[in-house]
Write a structure and sequence with these properties.
The protein has about 350 residues and is an alpha/beta fold. About 40% of the residues lie in helices and about 10% in strands. It comes from Odontophorus gujanensis (marbled wood quail).
């Protein structure tokens, strides 16, 4: 949702947003191993509702040539630094030409922090569990170079506001003639498996209005175990709202899809993917009511990617990631030092 928030801000600066997505090869060269394949990433970015078009295989260093090729007036990046493999600012050329704009980085989330949560197996990131000191100690070591803390790679707390939810929400009410479809789940680490599922559900109706019910952290932990969900309810809400197929989100939906819920939202269809449905606390089927009404449908996303698999990919890459984050932090700290020196020289 940090990436989505950047795309939202960029889209607000103009009329048409083209997003350049790098190949696996480019990322491996400059940053380290990507978690998702380029095909997965192209599809993910395309599914974000502020994106008009993607430019696959975009070069890591944005040049004026690239901007002209896609008829772009300017490019936008967050206010964190991106450096090439040899430590140069990747946006130097477009900045000099005055075709660069900056947007605010989303506080409180970074890929580094999410990777840390996956590797540490604590539940300290859930929405109402006290901060675990052990977790703090680990996150401080994770992605931190020997010399201190870069503000870009470090870990900070995400603070949800109503403003952020409003910015992400579509604000569209269901219209007469809309098919109101309800889907529920954890939607943790919102990924291509979720996108494929929602896209398939979206295709089930002429004018679909999809409501996604998100379970609270403790509920997800009950049926998923370990330290799931990796992202807490606030983070999952924004991730799902950013998807172009979703019209509305129920924050903390009941695990059992009740008659009340179906009547309240005037639901015509309830869909679930091919993943296992764990019984409710009392052993009952959470989809009993929609099944009784004959409005329940299983939808095959055609994707086999799960949150579990992503975590496995990360653990497999763990050592490479840790090396990557320490290198990244060291590069960022070097730039900060240089910036500080420049400031001092000015005075």
């Amino acid at each position: 949702y940090g990436h989505s928030n950047q795309l939202r801000q960029a889209r607000a600066m103009g009329d048409y947003l083209i997003v350049g997505v790098h190949t696996d090869e480019e990322i491996a060269k400059h940053k380290g191993p990507p978690v998702f394949t380029q095909e997965e990433r192209y599809k993910m970015v395309q599914a974000i509702k502020w994106v008009d078009e993607i430019a696959p295989g975009a070069p890591y260093v944005t040049t004026l040539e690239t901007l002209d090729k896609y008829n772009c007036d300017f490019c936008v990046h967050g206010d964190d630094i991106t450096l090439t493999i040899d430590g140069k600012d990747t946006y130097e050329e477009v900045k000099t030409a005055g075709r660069y704009r900056e947007c605010k980085r989303t506080q409180g989330v970074s890929t580094t922090d999410l990777v840390g949560r996956m590797l540490l197996m604590t539940k300290a990131h859930h929405s109402n569990i006290d901060e675990d000191l052990d977790y703090r100690k680990h996150t401080d070591n994770f992605g931190k170079g020997p010399k201190g803390h870069s503000p870009w790679t470090g870990v900070s707390q995400f603070l949800q506001t109503s403003q952020k939810i409003i910015q992400f929400a579509s604000g569209k009410e269901p219209q007469p003639g809309d098919t109101i479809i309800y889907v529920a789940g954890a939607f943790d680490l919102f990924h291509i498996g979720h996108v494929d599922f929602l896209e398939k559900v979206h295709q089930l109706a002429e004018s679909p209005y999809i409501i996604a019910g998100l379970h609270f952290d403790q509920e997800v932990n009950r049926y998923k175990g370990k330290n799931y969900p990796i992202m807490n309810i606030h983070e999952r809400t924004l991730s799902v709202l950013a998807c172009r197929y979703v019209s509305e989100v129920v924050i903390g939906a009941p695990y059992a899809v009740t008659a009340d819920l179906l009547d309240h939202f005037k639901v015509t269809l309830v869909c679930h993917g091919m993943t296992e449905v764990v019984p409710d606390k009392d052993g009952s089927d959470p989809y009993e009511e929609p099944k009784r009404r004959g409005i329940f449908q299983l939808v095959d996303s055609g994707s086999n990617l799960t949150t579990d698999l992503i975590v496995q990919r990360i653990i497999k890459n763990r050592l490479e990631f840790e090396a990557r984050n320490q290198k990244k932090e060291a590069k960022e700290l070097a730039v900060l030092e240089a910036m500080k020196r420049l400031e001092e020289e000015k005075h």
